[in-house]
Structure formats: C-alpha cells, structure tokens
C-alpha cells in the first residue's frame, strides 16, 4: 500500500501531491528531493530508484524530467511500486496528450481526479485508461505539443518522417478533434532498441535487440484486432543450433529469446499461425515485449584509427559506414568519443557536401562529439580530428580515449526482421475504413566500439 | 491586487511577462520565470522560496481568499445558467491554492453550499477540498456530513460511490457513527463501483474506529462479498481490506489471540507444515476458512479466476498464494501449471509475484526447484531489458539474490550483465555485482570440468574494459569487482596480472583503488608477494593521495620491507611530511610500517624511526600518540619481543569481513519480491513493526525471533554495514579496535586478525565438546536434581562451569505468554555451536528433539522448518522460582550447525542454562 504519491519538477517544486494513508509526514517531498539531489557529495552518482530514509521507503521514476514519487512505510514490492509509477505517468499522458510540467499544472484537477481512482487508501485500483474513462469527468486543457519534449517510444515518429501524422501520438484519449468527431485510426509501432559492442578489432562482442510492439488505438467500439507476425517466428533459443547462423544473410527464421504480452492479448492461435488477437484498450500500451540475442547485421560499422604525431599531437580518424539498404535513411546520428584528459584543442576536418554535419570538442567532459542529421544507407562518412595535448603524452592513447559510442534512429527499418504481416480489424459498423499505421523504427540503445 | 484578482478570475488571462500561465498572485511572484530571474538576481534561490511560502502566503492570502469567499457566496444560491462554469473556475482556483499549501479552509462553508449541484466535476472538486480539510477541522467536517449522506443515496452510482469514498476519507473519529449506515448500504449496492469503494471504506472505518467496524460486523460482510461478488475488483478490495484488518486485529483483539493460541498449541498442525512461513496468523487462517470448501479447492478456484482480476489484483492474490501450502506435489504442479502463463505478463510485478509462488512452493522439491530456476530465467532477463531502468534495477536486485542462491543458473548467460554505456550508475553497479557472482561460479564450475580459464576469465576481461572507462565511479566499482573475483577464486594467476596492469595505467583513481585490492590480495595469497612487490615498488608515493590507498601502500612498504629496496627511504620521505598528512589512519600505518622496516633493516631505518616516533608522540590524535608510545616502550623493553609482536610469521587470511549469515539470507529469500531484496536486509531491519505490511503477518513465529530485539537488530545491522564497507577498511579497523581492547597483547598479529577470531570460535567448539564429556556422567544425576558439572573434575575447562541450576520438570507456559516474554526480554546468550551429525540424523523424526529435551525439563513450545533448516522454540523454568528461560534454536541439518538464542528472566543464570541446554542437545543421538 502506497502512503503518498507526488510529482516533482526538476527544480523540486511540488506539482501534484496526494496523501493516501497519512502515515508519512507531510514534508516528505522536500526530504526526498534533497536526498536525491545530494545523493553523493561529488554528484556523480545517481540516487537509486528505491531507498529508505528514516523508515520511509521512497520509490521514484524519472519521466520527461519529472520525478514521479511514491512513499510507503511497509515492505512493498519494489517492482510493483515502480511499475505503478510508470503506469501513472502513462495514464496521465493518455489523458493530457502530452506529459510536461505545464500540462500537469494546467490540468491538475483532472490529475487529482485520476489519482483518486487509480489508488484508494493506498491500494491500487486500476491503471487502465479504458476503465478509468468511465470515472473521469474533467476535460483536459490541451497544451501545445510542438514545444514539448517528446515522451515514450512512439514519440520518435514525430521527428523527421513526414508520412506520419506526428500530432496523433499527442492526442488525448478523451479530447475531441477540432472538427468534433474522432478520427478512426490505430497505430502499431515496432520499436527495436539495439545494443552492440564491437571489440577493438571490429568484431561483434555482444549484440542484443530489445523490441516492443506498441499499440495506440483511437478506434470506437473497441473492435477485436488480429495481428499476424512472421510465420517463421520461434520463441526460445533451445533449437538455435538447428537454424545456425542466419542473421546477417537476411533470411531464415526470426528467433526470440523470450517475450511477454499485454494482458489483453489472446494467444489461442499463436502457436498455429503466429497471430495475436486482442481487443485494444484505450491509450498507449505494449502488446508484446521481446528480446533477441540472435546475431544480426549491425546497421553501422565504426572504424577508429589513432595516429600519434609527435608527443604533443595525435590524429583521430573516425569512419562510419551505413550497412543498410540505400532506400533507408538514418536520422539524428551522434558519435561520441572521450579523449585523453590532457587534450586542449581539437581541429576538425569535416567532409564537404554533407548537410547538417557538425563536430565539436566538449572541453569540460573532454569529449569529441560528431553529429550528422541524415545518413543514407550504403554511404560512408569520415571525420578527421587533430588533437593537441597540454603535456607530453607517454604511453598508449587508446587507454585514455574511447570507447566510441553512437546514437541514431532509423525509421522503417528493424534488424530483427520481425514483421506485422497484417492488421485485421473486426468490423462492427460500416463506417469508413479506419486508418492503420504500422511503423518500424530502430534506435541505438548502447552502440559502442572499443578502440 | 484587487483589480488583478478580479480581472483574472472573471476572464482568465495570461501572464503579461511570460505568457505561459494564468496570471495570479502566486504565479506573478513565485512561478513566473521572469519573477524567478529577479529573485535569483537578488540572490534568493528558488528552493528557499518554496520553503518560505508559508510566510509569503500571509502576505496576500487575506485579500485573495476573502475575495474568493465573496464570489462563492454570491454563486451559492444562484441557479442562473452558466453558474456551474463560473463555479468550476472558482473551485479550481481554491484547489490550486490548496495544493500549493495555502490555507483556504476559511471558504469551507461556501464550498459546501456551492456543492449542492448535479455537476459531477464540481462535486469531485468539492470532495477533494473537503477531504483535505475535514481531518483538521472536525467542526467543519460535521457540516459536510449532511450533503455527503444525501449524495450516498443519489441516483447516479458514480455520485454514490464518490460520496461514500469522501465520507469514509473524512478521517474524523467522532463522526464514525454516520459512516455505518452508508457503508452497509454501499456493500449491498447494485453497482460494482459503489461496492468497490465500500470495501475499501470498511478498512478506512477500521482505522478510525476498530470497535465500530467490528460491532457492525463488516468483516463478515466483506468475507461474504469476497466469495460471492461477480466483480473482480470488488473481490480484490475485500481481500486487501480483510488482510489488513485481520493482521491488525491479530495483535489486539482477544478473540483473535485465542484463535491463534489454539493454532499454536496444536503441535500436529505445526509439524504438518512444511515451512515456517505457513504457520499462519489468525487473519490468514480465517481467509482460508472463509472459503466454502477446503483450502485447496478454493485456492484453485481462485487461481482459475485469476485472469478476471486486473493485473494489480493478481499481484495481491499471488502474494496470498505464495503463503499457501499445498497438500501434495500434485497440487503444486496443478498450481504451477495454472500460473505458468503469468510469467509472460508484461507487468514485472505480476511476474515477480508468480516467481515467488513457484520458488516457495518447490523449496522442498530439489529437482523441481532447479527447473523453476531454469524456467524463470528468460522472463526475468526480458524484464531487465524491456522495462525502464528503474524496473531493471528492481528485477536485477532479484536476479542477484537468485544468483547468490544458485550461481550456476546464469553461468552461461553472463553476457546479459555486461554494462551498457548509457545505463544509470545504479544499474551498472548491480550488473557488476552480477558479473562478480557469475564469474566466481563459472570458474569453480570450470575447475570441475577441465577446460578452465577460457570461460571464467571472460567476465573479468569485460570488467577490465570498464576499468579503462572514463567514468570514474564506474572504473572504481569495476576494480573492486575484479578484486572480489580474485579473492574468491583459487586460480588467481591471470587476475593478479590484470590488477598489476591497472597499476601501470597511471590513472590516479585506478591506482588508488588497485593498491587497496593488492593489499587484500597479498594478505590472502602471500605467495604472490614477489610479483606484486616488483610493481608496487615502482609506484611513486606522490601519485597516491587517497588515504585508503596510501595506507595500503605504506602497509606493503612495511610488510615487505626486505623485498623492496627503497622502502626505508620512501618511508623516510613520507615521515618528513608528517604534518601534512591529514588522515590519522595513514599516520597509524606509517608508524607500524616504519617499525616493521626498522626491525628488518635497522641501520637504514633508524633515522626514519626516530623521526616517526617523535612526530607520533607529539601527534594531536589520541590513537596515533598511544601507538607511538606503545612502540617506544616496547623497543625500550626488549627489541626481540618487539620483533615477535610486530613481525610475526606471515599467515594467510582465509576469510575477510564476515558475510551475511545464512539466516539473514534465508529471511531475505522468504521476503522475495519486496524491498528486502533491494536493500539486502530482512524487513525487520528497516521497517517498524506495525508497518510490516499485510503480507508479512504470516510469519508469526518468525516475528517471535525478530520482534523488537534492539540488540539483535543492531548487531545484524552492523554486520550488514560492514559488508558494505571496503574489505580492507573493515578488517584493519577491527584490528585496531581489537588491539587496543586486548591491551596490546593482540599485537602479535596486528595484520592477521582472522587468526584470533578463528581461535575464538575454536574455543566455542572446545567448550561444547568438553561439556559433552563432563555432562555425560551427570545425565543420571541430573534427573534427581544433582548439581550440574560442579561435582565433576572440571579438567582444563576454559570457562568457569555453571553454578547450580535446577529446572522445573512440569513447567508450563501458554504460547501467548511465551510470545510476549520473548518480545520483552533481551537476548542474553547468543551462540553458534556444532552438533553431532548422529544427532541430526536422529532428528529425521521431528518429534525426536522435543521429546529428548523434555527429559531434561526443557519443553518445546513450537517448531517448524524444513530441511535443512529447522527451528524450535523451547521453554524452561527454574525449579524453585518462576524465573523462565526461553530458547530459539535454529538447526541446520546439513552443516550440523545450531544457532542458539537464549532469553532469561534471570540474566545471571542464563550462561549456566545455555550450557545445560547445549549439553542436553549434544546427547540427542546418544542412546
């Protein structure tokens, strides 16, 4: 049972505060914020999401810069409390369209209304946007989404790709369109976060895909939906040796190590034809989370060369190659590389003719940052950086620099080749055919090359 | 101000400065970023401002609030169209003031007047307002009773539910009489929302006035609802309310205690139980009995309904199921089959709750238990990677617990615990711990299966990558992890090489952290001294600044003085800078090192020694001065004695700071899926008793041993703290304290503390075995009240033998009194002893030990547990007086170890009783 729930802004202001049990002192938000802010004197370590202070357990999650906090006296399940906080954030986002300090402040009455129904006397009642709909009467005051930082995985679609109705993901589940009638549409997003570690010789040490099929439905009447996945989809790695190495050739079965499903999903025919059927509740939710360690072809190869030029100078040559088809374009690429602590100045030699390219040396962190707006599949880009050291450098630069890490987003591409073959909506009325958006995206989670 | 307020209330306008928020006084002064800029430029930080709000509020509150009051009053009676909208705006204003801490209780009556409306949004706001102020203004609360009671009979079920919830949440004790009627109706309401609210409402009423709640017989109604209701959430709420009510009731009500007594006094029931955790309290028993048929059927029925429950309710039911003890293995499999698909739930809380059920149910079935570990692996790993970092943290903590219990499960999956560069530090730290745990095991595993090296060293290689990381805390943690692996493994060759390579990296933090580890390594593996010293000798002491690292370096300089050419000179230069050395720890080490060095290489060190002693004697730090004086006198007295004391033959330390006792680990495991796992402490160490929670109440006997024993808790807590500390620090500090405590005599082993402690425990063992022989003769005479041990030739007994102690053969105590006494008394004797394996064998029959002890007038009052851990509670009473002895005895049948905790009315005889108890126990196997 939860004693209190509150949301703090980055500055530590109380945006929302709800006491359910009255067994934790009122000043807990302030105590909490001080503790988190000054967790370690050097400020380098982050406070863990769960800690105990004078007999009060504090749970917190960070969502778009806001701190969602719960307190409890009892020995609660930590995953329960943390999951609850995430869900509360999601429910609020479903209702407000955007989650931000401003939208919370403008809609605090609605937020309190939600909180009253989500938790009663410290016990969780429901976090389902669908169920809550019948209890909620306030209407959201919509906040302009354009200037808001995006939230959630689906927000990646807002940038770049014009084909997607970017505003749709910030639509409240209860607010009506300006036209007065709701647009029938459903979004299915296949989002894969990839983690790859390359050894210094360019060989893949570890690779993993954390995928999720995210759904957001704006369909009226809650029709049943069938989602068909690849025929050659297998779960569990027990039979892996029979399939052999197949990842990079682009064919062969898709093997998930493991997956889990949203509770609305029925898997009756999953074993037969790999279809999932569900009646999607309102709001955004993950239909399925999956994990793949089957080898796949990394979308980028990274090549780093360091040449020492005397004791006070060195040159770093970074080469990245896009290993995906040329019909696909990666967005917002950022390459980072820590440099030796005695680096004072870096001169960059950028390739000409590339739009939106920028390289910078962040002196305070001793870090090289190279950002490129777009990279087309199959192309190769190089950055040359000349380093100047304040003192003579002895020994090995590679021990003081690196590893090179990379972040990027690649729309309409997923390395696992998991697909939604079709999305069937059981029709109840003869209204116009609802819009169906099936979108794929790949994001770098931890993409690191050692040097 | 008036104009402003008026203006913005009638037509809300944006702040003219920032155009972000509505412009009101609070915004203008506190929230507007332009205002903030002004404050900041005046040197007032926003934090200060938030804290100073109360004084700020006084400033403008009166005008603002009274204005609101006026307007509300005007609207109260109005029925004009559009009134509701205006009201909404006003209500919002009131509530927004309320949330930022401004007291708006003065508009209470106006708010209540205005709430006579059918607009549900307005009602909701009003309820929120009322709920906030009623508790502290009971008089005002009385005003609301009328309209809330009326709303409880409204046509709209939403309004009925909301009103009932608000009514129950008023929190005013002398208004409870008004609650009973609406609650009773609520529980019978046709709408499930109202019933849902009512079920929780009963619990609220219980907290306000337990008597009223019990008198109205609400628990019985809840029980009825729980079994009959069609709505899953109503059932779930009944369940939670009942759980909490009964757990609280169990502590106070006579009836509940009586039921519990009957439970405790039925030994056959206790012995039936497979584990301690299922000795249920009344609350849970009631829950079981509440179901129409036998437990079994109901649980299964409940599980079949599982999918109807929402995910959160599932967590509650699963938690309850984990307490349930199935009658046979078929039932266990039935339950597990029913629950298996819960492992694929996207909600981590559901998955962990399910895993808890699986783990606890299969505890006694070793094979199945292993299969469970295999089965839960993949879902847990998926949770780690699919959830938020916070969720990963919670799940990783549980994985860590599992790995400690069954290290083999992840020996092939270590790659999952490689750190990703963008993870928060707390996740990385846990992953490092996982790698440490896994690496350790894979190597021991490899030792058995031949192709060693290749495998176990992979995680180490990975760790070495992190050491080179630019992230300093991360690098430090990684070095510690490498060191931990080295200290755990038999084959440290490769790892020592790695550590020495770290020293060559010439990064200050790496060097510092590594030095500390090398020191620990040398203490455990003196055979590596040669390689290490060669490298350590090359480190310039100027590059080492951190006290801990410096102390480690100095220790090595002293300890291996004969191997290191420069050691006297390095020490000398360090002593020259004595005054600049701020850490007393370093100065202490410096003294010891210089005297060690002197004894080995007198001519070279003489000068340094003189300087060190002089500086030491003049030091302002008490400990440093004492140690300098001690060395000075020692050298004056006899150099050869000094040699023996300061430079004893080197001995390898086998065990460093003691790890958590298995009892604590087991208790944490019992509390799987709770904070205990994250904190790595059992719940009694961090929660107050009354907050142990609805799920903890079943550990009734467990509470006996843990309930409110201040000293026990402190000891255990210290143990945990020690674990957290750096290995070196904890041992070296112990050395120090022990050294002083023993008045210098312990100085013969200043750096090998472990030998003294093992000596100590040896003493215990001796004691027991001695008693065995001595009391064997007295067995016969004991029964006729002979004096124990006194008449016997005591022999070379290390401790004085106990004085006369006669026990009452017919002593009786009722379980409740026992429990109370156990809570009140402090532990007077607490020891770990070993028993004869034959005795353990005899315990295959659970009644054997109680019967055996009965012969010695020690009565068993409760018992439980399952192989290999058994727990017994004994009771004995002095023959002449009513002075009692209480014993908690935990027997591990696989290691033949016994943990005793004795509490006594008469503390002075507790030692005597302890020995009597041990001797009786040791004779279990003897015919």
UniProtKB/TrEMBL annotation, chain A:
Residue ranges annotated for the MHD domain, each copy included: 183-450
Domain of life according to the entry: Eukaryota
Subcellular location: Endomembrane system
Keywords: Membrane, Protein transport, Transport
Family note: Belongs to the adaptor complexes medium subunit family.
Keyword ATP-binding: no
Any Pfam family the entry gives: Adap_comp_sub
PROSITE patterns: MHD
Protein name: MHD domain-containing protein
TrEMBL record, chain B:
Organism superkingdom: Eukaryota
Ranges of biased composition (kind: Polar residues): 739-759
InterPro entries named among the record's database cross-references: AP_beta, AP_complex_bsu_1_2_4, ARM-like, ARM-type_fold, B-adaptin_app_sub_C, Clathrin/coatomer_adapt-like_N, TBP_dom_sf
Localization in the cell: Endomembrane system
Residues covered by region (Disordered): 725-760
Residue spans of biased composition, Basic and acidic residues class: 725-737
Keyword tags: Membrane, Protein transport, Transport
UniProt-listed Pfam families: Adaptin_N, B2-adapt-app_C
Chain segments annotated as coiled-coil in the UniProt record: none
Record-annotated Beta-adaptin appendage C-terminal subdomain domain positions: 805-922
Assembly with partners or alone: Adaptor protein complexes are heterotetramers composed of two large adaptins (beta-type subunit and alpha-type or delta-type or epsilon-type or gamma-type subunit), a medium adaptin (mu-type subunit) and a small adaptin (sigma-type subunit).
Family affiliation: Belongs to the adaptor complexes large subunit family.
Role played: Subunit of clathrin-associated adaptor protein complex that plays a role in protein sorting in the late-Golgi/trans-Golgi network (TGN) and/or endosomes. The AP complexes mediate both the recruitment of clathrin to membranes and the recognition of sorting signals within the cytosolic tails of transmembrane cargo molecules.
PANTHER family attached to this UniProt entry: ADAPTOR COMPLEX SUBUNIT BETA FAMILY MEMBER
Protein name as it appears in the record: Beta-adaptin-like protein
